[in-house]
Design a protein that fits this description.
With 547 residues, the chain is α/β, with parallel strands linked by helices. It has helices at 2-17, 52-69, 113-126, 171-183, 208-211, 243-254, 271-276, 305-321, 337-341, 343-352, 362-380, 409-416, 426-429, 452-456, 467-471, 488-495, 498-507, 515-531, 539-546; strands at residues 29-38, 44-47, 75-77, 83-88, 97-101, 105-110, 143-151, 157-163, 188-192, 194-195, 198-199, 259-266, 326-330, 384-388, 401-404, 421-423, 473-480. It has 2 domains: 15-151, Chitobiase, domain 2, CATH 3.30.379.10; 157-546, Glycosidases (TIM Barrel). It contains 19 helices and 17 strands. The protein binds acetamide and zinc ion (ZN).
Length: 547
């Protein structure tokens, strides 16, 4: 009884302390003031050295406001005044912003597109939810409560992976994903666009990658562990991105301050490419684009220089398409059995003088060799390599950034070696895992159990890390693999609301990451998703609130 009373008191305190500002991710500092600001028909002013992209952001926001309120909001360049002022302030850190809502004007200060956009996103979350409807809505009081917000992210890398190799969703879905990432201030879309089951990016020098490698003749029905039934239906015809489409997506993301990090997964997860160009494999094939899930033993043959040429040619076109500093080369789940039997690979091991040590086979070091060559090439293009934590096996390439997915141990090991790390442990951040315990009531998923509170609870720093090592944790990412996710509705269902929980792990300082406050805000977040036309999993929160 006392416990119930206490939790009621705490709940009331939490509600009253955070009654108005329910922004997710919650800002660093919020002061709520009396009064409100009327939004309909206000001018937007860009003040100082506002760059072109930021100017476009201001125009976009003005158009959204005009549409929603039904009264035209104009954009004016020049001095601050009545209206919403976008004030360039070079003293602000890259993604930081200050947002002051007064009764006569709103002042936003930042030094970059990102800072300004994150301020706009905070402002939108404080406005009537109809701002997300994308159309005029009558009978809405277009006001926003007065407040002062000072904000900046905890981590510079705030990522989400979408897998379009296993299932393809297309331009509109990816734009919708970018839109919802923007709401929660994520700034990196890790785009997994090649794998055993489909190659989905046009490479001009190797046209068969998409012509042949995008299509599998059929797909496993049901779960890999329980089914041997296939649907008999080809999948993937036309399901790939032309280079023009890629450029369009990259540009769309850039307008929001989101970088797209492409992943060309190698030397494993390459069966679609092997099908298109069998000479790339150790045996020469024939191969077929994989029709089931899991880890294929057929991988790129590293013994042949023609394979290295292929890799560097592909990376060259990838660098032309993606301005991102980071390029992801995969490196995960690469079985070594074919290399152990391959005369070319064994000859290469001899030539390189590679020797097994007590921890790793010679073939592990062969993978390190290919990673290092990819890294050297990317460096000539001014880029940095990211790989999954398997790239730690053997010898880690000198400047590689490690994406720690098999827990946090890989990340801990990499920071000890002075390498940068992105944490994405599957136990907390694999969004293809079930989000409810009642799995028989859920759509088929890969397995596991990552409820929203598990996602929320992730802390990337561990006790063993020194302050210098913590500096190497660039940030956090969640991964949405799509073996079992075939359409956009289901994709959104797995993504939302866990994406919002992720955003607090990425953005909030530990003292601001408060589960109870988040839980109080999340109804508003669900409201945003639904108003914007997304399909969130709502019942997972009902379960949380009932606890
Ligand atoms: C992975 O989940 N294989 C990175
Ligand atoms: Zn080989």
């Amino acid at each position: 009884m006392r416990k119930i009373f206490l939790s009621c008191v705490l709940a009331v305190m939490a509600v009253s302390a955070y009654a108005k500002v329910t922004i997710v991710p919650y800002p660093q500092q919020v002061v709520e003031n009396e009064g409100s600001y009327k939004l309909a028909g206000v001018s937007l002013r860009s003040v100082g050295a506002i760059d072109e992209r930021t100017q476009a952001l201001v125009e976009r926001f003005a158009a959204e406001l005009s549409q929603a309120t039904g009264k035209s909001s104009k954009v004016i360049k020049g001095k601050a005044g009545k209206g919403i002022n976008f004030i360039y302030d070079q003293t602000m850190a890259e993604e930081a912003y200050v947002l002051n809502v007064g009764t006569k004007s709103i002042d936003i200060k930042a030094s970059s597109l990102r800072g300004f956009n994150w301020a706009v996103q905070s402002l939108k979350q404080m406005m009537p939810v109809e701002i997300y409807a994308g159309k005029a809505v009558e009978d809405v009081e277009w006001t926003v409560g007065c407040c002062q917000i000072t904000d900046a992210p905890r981590f510079g890398y705030r990522g989400l992976l979408i897998d379009e190799a296993r299932h393809f969703f297309g331009m509109e879905t990816i734009k919708d994903v970018l839109d919802v990432m923007e709401i929660h201030k994520l700034n990196k879309l890790h785009w997994h666009i090649t794998d055993d089951q489909g190659w989905r990016i046009e490479i001009k020098k190797y046209p068969l990658l998409t012509q042949v490698g995008s299509i599998r003749k059929e797909t496993l029905v049901g779960h890999l562990r329980r089914s041997t039934v296939y649907d008999g239906t080809p999948y993937g015809e036309g399901m790939w991105y032309t280079q023009d489409q890629i450029r369009e997506i990259v540009e769309y993301a850039a307008t929001k301050g989101i970088d797209i990090i492409p992943e060309i997964d190698l030397p494993g997860h390459m069966q679609a490419a092997l099908t298109a160009y069998p000479y790339l494999g150790c045996t020469g094939g024939p191969y077929e684009v994989w029709t089931k899930w899991g880890v294929s033993k057929d991988v790129l043959c590293i013994g042949k220089e023609t394979t290295m040429e292929f890799i560097l040619d592909v990376l060259s076109e990838v660098c032309d398409l993606f301005p991102s500093k980071f390029i992801h080369i995969g490196g995960d789940e690469c079985p070594k059995v074919k290399w152990a039997e391959c005369p070319h690979c064994q000859q290469k091991i001899l030539e390189l003088g590679i020797k097994a040590d007590e921890k790793h086979s010679a073939e592990h070091f062969l993978q390190s060799y290919v990673t290092a060559r990819a890294e050297q090439y990317l460096a000539t293009r001014g880029r940095r390599l990211i790989g999954w934590d398997e790239i730690l096996e053997g010898e880690l390439a000198p400047d590689a950034t490690v994406m720690s997915w098999r827990g946090t141990k890989g990340g801990e090991a990499a920071v000890k070696l002075g390498h940068d790390v992105i944490m994405t442990p599957y136990q907390y951040l694999y969004l293809d895992y079930y989000q409810s315990k009642e799995q028989d009531k859920e759509p088929l998923a890969i397995g596991g159990y990552v409820p929203v509170e598990k996602c929320y609870s992730f802390e990337p720093f561990t006790d063993e890390m020194t302050p210098e090592q913590k500096e190497h944790i660039l940030g956090v990412q969640a991964n949405l693999w799509t073996e079992y996710i075939g359409d956009q509705d289901y994709l959104e269902y797995m993504l939302l609301p866990r994406l919002s929980a992720l955003s607090e792990v990425q953005w909030c300082a530990p003292e601001n990451k408060i589960w109870e406050r988040y839980l109080d805000s999340v109804d508003e977040v669900i409201n945003i998703y639904e108003t914007a036309g997304y399909n969130p999993a709502k019942h997972v929160l009902a379960v949380q609130k009932a606890k």
